[in-house]
Amino acid sequence: MKKFVYLISGLFLSLYLLLGLQPPVRAASVNLISNPSFETASGGQPTDWNQGGWGSNTRSFDYSSTNPHSGSMSATVNITNYSTGDAKWLANPVSVSPSTKYTYSDYYRSDVSTRVVAAFVDNSGNSTYVELSPAAPATNWMQYTTDFTTPSNVATVTVYHLIDSNGSLTIDDVRLALFVTPPTTTQNLIANPSMETSTDGVTPDSWNQGGWGTNTSNFSYQNTGHTGTRSLYVQMSNYSSGDAKWYANAVAVNAGQAYTYSDYYQSSTSTELVAQYLDASGQATYVDLGSVPASQTWAQASVDLTIPANITKVSIFHLIAANGWLSIDDVSLMVKVPTSNLISNPSVESASNNQPTGWQHDKWGTNTSTFSYITNDGHNSTKSVKVTISKYSSGDAKWYFNPISSVSGDKSYKFSAWYKTNTQPSAVVMYTDSSNNENYMTIPRPLPNSNSSTTWTQYSSTFTLPKGATSATVFMLISSNGWLQVDDYSMQEYTPTGFSQPIVSLTFDDGLASTYTNGLPLLEQYGVVSTQYLISGFLNTPGYMTTAQASAFKAQGSEIGSHTVTHPALTTLTSSALNTELSQSQSTLRGLFGSDTAIDFASPEGLYNQSVLTAVKQYYRSHRSVDVGYNSKDNFDPYNIRVQNIEATTTPAEVADWVNQAINTNSWLVIVYHGIDNGTDPYHTTPSDLSAELSNIRSTGVQVMTVGQALDTVLPQL
Q1: Is 543 helix (H, G, I), strand (E, B) or coil?
Q2: How far is CA 522 from CA 99, 515, 555, 690, 706, in A?
């Protein structure tokens, strides 16, 4: 089904509003920002808003009706010729209470990373600036939200969402409100969720039938169900266009609140979940929430959704848009309650013998490491832990929480921590398997900004433990001279938000000759394509592909991507050398293979930092790392595409498990191969293993795409 983004008004929707039930929900706190959506103006400028900036840069401000998040206006700031300083739109200061927790949020679009800063003014007129969590680049509208606590002597606060590099930032629907504690219990907002009650015996109370397009649809109220005795059934034939569905009356919801929808269903064909959002005036917006696979037995469909700004009601349609049938029962829409933190003593407040309870520290390699338990500098309280390295030659050092034994393999988790540092940290998941072996999985690197040595910065990422994992911890570590201070850890169970379909991409690094000799025949045998990340300077040299061999991949339908000129560690290069590696590789590959090549990039050994990513964005549409994970709608970053790495010890059964995980979550799985041979390299794959892996992938029916094709598929869904 196509994604809906259109408006309907009038008598049809008025009927929905008259039928809608409004069970009580948790009230939202009052927005303290005046004119939060920039709709009111005076003299061509938004009322109660100001322009600000400092330093050496060229900044311009735009108050525009072009593509706002909601309403008719938004505010944009652009920077060029950047050397120092920043620029921002800022609301008038608002009065706040001391030592009180508030929530700030806005919707934004930006082509660079941006920052959010709380500017506090005390009763004597003194100003204090506190760095809040940064905002990642976002091509489409994205919601930013964070919580903070005011100082003890505060009078007013202004929150700046600012830009401090060459680029553009647009904001809309800004909100500052008292923090509201999430509910600890939930209530199903759907009336008559199991369809057991019916006044007329023909249609369940509080339920409706709907459909459109060219098709024949028959609705029935059945005497069998997942639980109880009733369920809803719709059968479609002669399908040409449109859809058909049973749906509950619209229910009242809070903008910005996360909810979880679920139902139990049976179907003969793939079906769809669609949210119908209603604003206060009765206008509707439709958003596709994803597809649901066919199931001949009762299965549960579940999806999380966050209510957009200005929305007051929602209906969720579980619909059919193909020839076949669909039954639903036991429907639920509830406020999403955050999963409890799995980490004991996450803020290191409890201690024994000057050591935080449930925490350890460790180091390896050649370096001098010192570990400190800080008692007068914490993120939300007074305590934190710090590691300092000097005389670094090799290895790393870190504090970490005791491994959690309640984790499960093939389950996903969300990890976050607050940190300060004067160097580049890394994040690594350490997990034990059923044989009690320790295994290590690199996840996306924290990207410190210019203020990270003095202000707390939040790091957040997700990861999926492989089958057989029995315990896990996360290392926030450093592997260079410098220091890292951490606090307020969190690890929670997590359900990814999938794309419209699962995707698998096969990527091969370096352009090794064995990839052509042994790999290409297998790709052709199984009818699948790949992305070949070539080192342009190594073409036509011993052990690597010739130009003709690389051209054979393109003729087969595979993609040619860039992997630099000489395969250096990009994080060690000067700015000039970095740009040479990126630009010359692209120009060489395009000269050899055409202008439709070298659009996508993979960094050697997956090494990157903020400077590398900034340079990559000048030349390429994407960056693939070797950070482990699956790419889903809610965690996707085109400049850090996550992967599963093939090593010599990887088995076809493990690859099959990765593929099943992607299918079960509608994720994008990217697999990294190197040489295809029977050698001894730790990253090689034997031809027999590759054949078994490709055979399994084809047997599942999952779509295999190049990285470029996959990006064309997923980017419009964000």
Answers
A1: coil
A2: 64, 10, 15, 8, 16
Distance between CA 361 and CA 135 in Å, rounded? 30
**What domains can you pick out in the chain, each with its CATH number?**
11-26+185-335 (2.60.120.260), 41-178 (2.60.120.260), 351-493 (2.60.120.260), 503-717 (3.20.20.370)
Calculate mean pLDDT across residues 156-173. Answer: 95
Q: What is the pLDDT of residue 139?
A: 80
Contact 641, 623 (CB under 8 A): yes
Rounded CA separation 315/302 (Å): 15
Distance in angstroms (rounded) separating the CA atoms of residues 281 and 268: 38
Q: State pTM to two decimals.
A: 0.57
- Residue 240's CB is within 10 A of a number of other CB atoms, namely 9
607: number of Cβ within 10 Å: 15
Note the Cα 564 to chain centre separation in Å. 27
Rounded distance between C-alpha atoms, residue 87 and residue 77, angstroms: 7
Closest listed residue to residue 267, CA positions, set 203, 320, 316: 320
d(CA 502, CA 592): 33
The kind and range of the H/E element at 438 are: strand 438-443
The C-alpha atoms of residue 207 and residue 318 are separated, in whole angstroms, by 13
Contact (CB, 8 A) for 188 and 333: yes
Contacts (Cβ under 8 Å, ≥6 apart) of 457: 131, 133, 134, 418, 419, 420, 446, 448, 449, 451
Q: Are 254 and 309 within 8 A, CB to CB?
A: no
Contacts of 576 (CB under 8 A, 6+ apart): none
* pLDDT per residue as tens digits for the range 210-252: 999 999 999 999 999 888 889 999 999 999 999 999 999 999 9
Could you read off the pLDDT of 561-609 as tens digits, one per residue? 999 999 999 999 999 999 999 999 999 999 999 999 999 999 999 999 9
Report strand pairing: 622-628 vs 457-464. unpaired
Record the tokens describing residue 111, joined without a space: 């082509």
38-96 tens-digit pLDDT: 999 998 899 999 999 999 999 999 998 888 888 889 999 999 999 999 999 999 999 99
CA atoms within 13 A on the CB side of 398: 21
Task: Please tell me the distance from the alpha carbon of residue 689 to that of residue 717, in angstroms, as a whole number.
Answer: 34
What is the rounded distance in angstroms from the CA atom of residue 447 to the CA atom of residue 420? 11
